[in-house]
Q: What sequence folds into this?
């Protein structure tokens, strides 16, 4: 029989999770809760409308650490190797890792969360299947507001979110079958990034069979990248003023997005608001069989689009843009 427990501010959320067991519903009462939440059982629902989770005492020493981060980094909500997890309504603020970190989860629903000023990631989902991230607000992270990473056939749905003040608003990292629908991404260095790149010691990469549709991507003007470990997007190449980028993707459809008023404030390896390129030179692939249809790419500097791909291997139709490279590309009109 499943259990429902309400946790008041000042009570231990971790104790409630550990004692309630599989199938439990944990309700966080309105107010500020200090600590973190390691979800260790299947079928858990964690709901926290008007509840805020912040760093505090009582964090288990054996909690799984954020991938590729130092041992002292702490995330807010953590799940590893569980099934059928739902997290809704909660605000997670100020952790040194991710606001929410899910690794090897089967069946994940993240809805109506606010993740703000978590140092590394907002919502970070890795090697997970059956994931949805819906109607969340993610801001103030060094890397992505919402990221799905190495989910080879994760079939993730990222819909209706607002991402801002991150290096990447939404980051699809070596993940396939992802749908990114009707999100708003603004005030990042890059609004939406799809990247196929193989890393040493990581699972196989690839970004295939994704749908990017109906997103409003505008005003992305921060500068990210560089050698300073504390900088936005540290250790990556310099990026600024980019709306959507497809790097080494295959069979990705980009349909009916509005990409507008993106302007770089610093150096950038990408020179337009909509960018396509190959990642073959650093462990990925050429971009092939992508469909770019009915997008409005307007009011950006220095260019609206930059297509560093073999154009005959892609399909372009019905797109609106004023200026781009190459300027003779078909499927684009002023």
A:
């Amino acid at each position: 029989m499943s259990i429902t427990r309400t946790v008041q501010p000042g009570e231990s959320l971790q104790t409630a999770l550990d004692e309630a067991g599989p199938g439990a519903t944990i309700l966080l009462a309105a107010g500020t809760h200090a600590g973190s939440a390691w979800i260790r059982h299947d079928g858990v629902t964690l709901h926290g409308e008007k509840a805020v989770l912040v760093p505090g005492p009582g964090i288990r020493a054996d909690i799984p650490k954020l991938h590729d981060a130092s041992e002292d980094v702490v995330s807010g909500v953590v799940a590893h190797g569980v099934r059928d997890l739902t997290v809704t309504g909660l605000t997670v603020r100020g952790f040194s890792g991710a606001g929410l970190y899910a690794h090897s989860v089967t069946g994940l629903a993240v809805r109506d969360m606010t993740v703000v000023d978590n140092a590394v990631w907002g919502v970070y989902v890795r090697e997970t299947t059956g994931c949805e991230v819906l109607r969340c607000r993610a801001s103030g992270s060094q890397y992505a507001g919402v990221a799905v990473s190495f989910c080879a056939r994760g079939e993730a749905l990222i819909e209706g979110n607002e991402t801002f003040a991150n290096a990447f608003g939404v980051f699809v990292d070596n993940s396939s079958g992802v749908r990114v629908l009707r999100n708003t991404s603004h005030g990042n260095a890059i609004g939406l990034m799809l990247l196929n790149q193989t890393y040493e010691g990581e699972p196989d990469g690839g970004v295939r069979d994704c749908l990017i549709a109906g997103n409003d991507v505008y005003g992305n003007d921060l500068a990210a990248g560089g050698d300073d470990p504390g900088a936005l997007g540290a250790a990556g190449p310099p990026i600024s003023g980019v709306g959507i980028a497809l790097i080494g993707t295959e069979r990705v459809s980009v349909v009916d997005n509005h990409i507008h008023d993106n302007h770089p404030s610093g150096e950038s390896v990408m020179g337009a608001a909509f960018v396509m390129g190959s990642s073959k030179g650093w462990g990925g692939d050429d971009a092939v069989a992508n469909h770019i249809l009915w997008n409005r790419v307007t009011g950006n500097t220095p260019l609206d689009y930059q297509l560093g791909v073999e154009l005959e291997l892609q399909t372009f139709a019905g797109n609106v843009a004023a200026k781009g490279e190459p300027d003779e590309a078909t499927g684009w009109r002023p």
